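Folded chain entry
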Amino acid sequence: MAFDTGLLLMPYDVVFHAPRAVLPDGERAAAVAVRGGQIAAVEPVDADLDADRQVRLGDDEVLMPGLVDTHVHVNEPGRTEWEGFRSATRAAAAGGVTTLVDMPLNSIPPACDSDALQIKRSAAEGQCFVDVGFWGGAIPGNESALAGLAADGVFGFKGFLLDSGVAEFPPLGLGDLECAMREVAAVGSVLLIHAEDAALISPASGGRAYADFLASRPDEAEVRAIEHVVEAAARTGARTHIVHVSSAQTLETIKRAKESGVDLSAETCPHYLSLSAEAVPDGATEYKCCPPVRDSDNAERLWELLRSGVLDFVVSDHSPSTPDLKCLDTGDFGAAWGGIASVQLGLSITWTQARRRGHTRVDVARWMAERPASRFGVPRKGRIEPGFDADLCVFAPDAEFVVDAGRLHHRHPVTPYDGATLAGVVRGTWLRGEHITPHVNEDRDPSGRLIARGDG
């Protein structure tokens, strides 16, 4: 007989029996019971729980919370040929991601006011295999639109301190930055910043040499920009987040800001943790991103920043484009679009590198599910705990596979990981207790929802 909050209840919808489950208090054997799309109970693995369906994981499998990827560029509407909600969320689901938050660019129009946000929501409706939320845009002159966007449920606002790469999303000057921060603070939201100082970046020059591209965007450009952001955040009291930190030289600035009470968080990405500049072949523009992948010593230091908590979490910054924009034919780093497509691979990339350094699956789940959901108020996501959505990933951590770009689900077969051997296979993804990976593979109707900050 099953009891829940003192009331006699019907059988559970599904119970997962996992010899290893990643729970908030660590990894252990557990039975996870689901009712009405939410986790209703976490019990000993051998508990006799009545359910319509029993799912028993293999001894080589681990039950993890579905990932929460808060940095994805879907590009629809307006640039759907670059990606799109159906392809992006299909890839996300195949990679164990159950929730993503879409950046306000590079769609047309960008989500910089309520009308544009509604256009984006309409484009996404009925196309999403996972749950999808939205960021609003912070650009010069749209300060008066931020309160309306916040009321519409965006999870926060994204701004750039330098050219974003698309004309319809101009950068914030330092005066604009402070104005945006004051508005964001007033509505109790958060401002995300792409922090590179344009004055320290060399004009793009053509060429196939990755070393030349890397030299054009030095560490100091990130350090200086983050210093400006921290100073403005301290003056305004705005909750602030630094996206895609690539340089470990930002350590002292971020650490001091946090210690002084600035409400600051910072993320990095799988490519900064796994790739190294010295291994990028000349002309291999699939590796181009901004800020750039730096050397292997820098990558090791980023791992230390994650370990110490200076960096808070890991997200994909999935930023695809059409192959022609990557200039794969010429290998010209100056002309190529800067962005790496990896939303389907983020868990495996991160786990492959993490286990080599002694990190656990509990660490990875904290960095890729719990912390992003908590920081940005993504409701009921990121933990295997009663009351949370039954968003789950069945993960085989010791299985290996070779990446075949042509078999990935994002729209174009372009990724720097093509041919790489990765550890950790996603064997199933569940969204609110529904097994969605068959939907992905068989092209059935998607069941993801559009979510908003402030949802129940």
About this structure: The mean pLDDT is 96. The radius of gyration is 21 Å.
